[in-house]
Amino acid sequence: MNLILEKQTLQDLLQFWRQDYDVYLPQKLERFSHFMPLTDNCEPVNNEPHNTRIPPKALFLPMTEALVKFTRYGGYEDAKHEIQSRVVFAVRPCDAQAVQLLDTSFIQEEYTDPLWQEKREKTITIGLGCHKTCPTGFCTTVGCGPFNKAGLDAILTDLGADYLVETLTEKGSSLFLTLPEAQEQMVTMAEVIQQKAFNQMPVAFETEYLKEKLEQNFDSEYWDNVSQSCLGCGVCTFLCPTCFCFDIVDETQRRERVRNWDSCMFRTYSLEASGHNPRPSRVERTRQRISHKYVYWLDQINQIGCTGCGRCVRYCPVGLDIRAMLRQAQTLPFEVSHAV
Amino acid sequence: MPDLDAIRTEARRLLEEGLVEVVVAFKAGDTPLHPQPAFFRSADEVDELVYDGLCQNNLATYLTRLPKQAKVGMVVRGCENRSVNALVVERQKAREDLYLVGVPCEGILDWQTIVAEVGEAITSVTETGHDLMIETSAGYQLLERHNFLHDSCKRCIHPNPTSAEILIGDPIAEGDPSLPRSAVESFEARSIDERYAWFQKEAERCIRCYACRQACPMCYCEECFVDHIEPRWTESGATPAGMQGWHIVRAFHQTGRCTSCGACERACPMDIKMTYLTEKLNHDMREKYNFEAGLDAQSQPPFAAVTLDDKNRFKI
Amino acid sequence: MPEKPKIVLFQCRWCLYAPADQEWVDSQLPENIHLTKTPCTGRINPLYLLNAVQGGADGVMISGCLPEQCHFKTGNIAARRQLDEFNDFLDYVGYDKQRVRFVWLDLQDRGIIQKQLAAFERELEALGPVSNLATRAKVAEGGQNA
């Protein structure tokens, strides 16, 4: 269904949703925006092509989440989590597709992460498409796009004075019941805007045979070259919407077992109890990170594990740019596999 | 404006004459606002060397990542030279294995303030004297450089490298020592609850990414205190105790070692202010012990230079 | 009846020369005082103080030997340089300076530690219970920051 939402009524609609849901949307925090709960006062939604620093994955996999509480003398119980139903508003398509990619890790036939699943079930995700190209994004290069619909219950297109609201699921429709249907010419206008936005996105690197080139050059000096200035911090992984690794820690003083975000860029990530570290330096760790996103995800679910949000490029403290690294990888030698 | 040709000439000479195995400096980034640290190993690579106010990293942090015996050349500003000295004092590098190319510094630019002023569509940034010429898709804009400096640089006392083998450019006037002092004193003048409220507000944005630690030249411990498990003194995650404990102790471990470079704050993806913590410690070391880190490559920091003469220093 | 201030006492194991004093600390310490003994005050890592503060200590007392009486020569002086600065630093971020107290005991002292602790307790009662920096709370009970 295509509906029209007048921008001047948006605040009222968001507050109306608050009767039944917690509403999260990007709000100003210092020099950037961050998904925070809507309160009585809310700033206008930022339509600029400028994403939040922390992706909305934090709303499904919190930075620190309690798993088990235990007593001093051996008793324990699952930590209780009260999850309210919530609407997450103005999610960019790159982040929404990323959450859907993460579902393939957290919701599987053999095992489903109950904490992740409950939050997913209780969330309605409303997307805001990007009508202007964002500065470091490359979504179209990796199978996403500025008006991509994966992972969304509805998507908004900015038409100027109004939004076109395209509902994609029942959950999405349920939030917009009072809106009028969009006229034909508004829908056409939206399609033009969407197509233009898609075409404007630069192609950051070629993806053809990228996987083969990366995996067939495991011992190449290429990895030393691209990782030299890497500091080994966790900025790229923590700001990445498709990264999901966590570390389980027993906080004995608090008598809690928690899970925290972890990063494959940390030395301790692969450090084994014996003291052996299969990824002893930034070379191996950078190779791991790039390979995970552009080789192993493809092996596992046949999709690139990156949605081109560009946060890693923008916020790397030493200016490392994965787009440039992959353009360089395209110059590596390779053989097309003839395996069946 | 540093003389780029002179820097490149010296870098080439160091490599051609075999005085160093690598010259650590910067090269152009893949985006206009982010030059990258670079490692030049042959003279012809040096054509790519760039050096301007957007070069925001303290290069001394790489000294402990290169092989210890390697002969290393490094292009350094005031704070970087002091960090190098501090590392030499701590025996992380032998001074004779270093060749420092000194560049007096007019301050590092805060790229986010430039974007806030001019917008996102920046295609190039050129420094001309005291101005910044910004090229965007809409044309050119001229900004005054000193309005876009990083906070630490606004308070810098020692912009000149003091122990470089060669200085490229004329020394710049020393900064006003009352600037960092009054910054600390004005924070101290707030009430204790106001100070805690500020500290809490800054710390609660922390995501424990450790960009501050990795960017800092003096954080080179193979096992950081947060990695200790048995016992675990600092909470591991993004909890108030964990985030506050992280900032308090990381700053405190810099006492007598920090050179006020601000690389930590520039690396932080969550815009956390943290130099107000290290500035307090640096201020106390100056006031109580008349000590500043890195002014030479010999003096021991106060926490190492303990003597029985101290007995009268503290009230019983 | 208001709760007594929670005090964490770090004591170097040499400073209570009189057996009666050490016995009192080992077995008759009031319930609101928690003891940790170290081989020397120089062993006290600022992380221990921070741990006490984050756990809700209303006050921290560090008891060591006088200069020139340290069993390890300058351990107590190293402790004072570090921990004195840490005390100032904690005050800077919101934990009142008055809540950290150093006591250097002479080998000839008798019955001093009891008096010092009692006096400290009275001062802490006047300061009131602590709230700043006492942040150790269960994540599942709201101590979480998403």
Task: Kindly describe this structure.
The complex is a heterotrimer of chains A (340), B (316) and C (146). Chain A has 340 residues and is of the alpha/beta class. Chain A has two domains: 2-200, no CATH class; 210-329, no CATH class. Chain A has helices spanning 10-17, 93-106, 114-121, 170-174, 184-200, 210-215, 222-227, 235-239, 282-301, 311-315, 322-329, and strands at 2-6, 22-29, 32-37, 64-70, 76-78, 86-91, 123-128, 154-158, 162-167, 246-251, 256-261. In chain A, strands 1-9-8-7-6-2-3 form a seven-stranded mixed sheet. In chain A, strands 5-4-11-10 form a four-stranded antiparallel sheet, with no helix packed on it. In chain A, a hairpin with a 3-residue loop joins strand 8 (154-158) and strand 9 (162-167). The longest helix of chain A is centred in the last third of the chain and has 20 residues, at 282-301. Chain B is an alpha/beta fold and 316 residues long. Chain B has two domains: 4-110 and 149-305, no CATH class; 111-148, no CATH class. Chain B has helices at residues 4-16, 78-89, 111-118, 151-154, 178-188, 192-203, 211-215, 240-252, 263-267, 275-289; strands at residues 22-27, 36-40, 49-50, 72-76, 98-102, 122-128, 131-136, 139-144, 166-167. In chain B, the strands form two sheets. In chain B, strands 1, 2, 3, 4, 5 and 9 form a six-stranded mixed sheet that branches. A three-stranded antiparallel sheet of chain B has the order 6-7-8, with no helix packed on it. In chain B, strand 4, helix 2 (78-89) and strand 5 (98-102) form a beta-alpha-beta unit. Chain B is globular, with a radius of gyration of 20 Å. The model of chain B has no long low-confidence stretch (mean pLDDT 95). By secondary structure, chain C is of the alpha/beta class. Chain C has a domain at 32-126. Chain C contains four helices and four strands. The N and C termini of chain C lie far apart (38 Å). The chains are: A alpha/beta (340), B alpha/beta (316), C alpha/beta (146). Chains A and B meet through helix 8, strand 10, strand 11 and helix 10 of A and strand 2 and helix 7 of B.
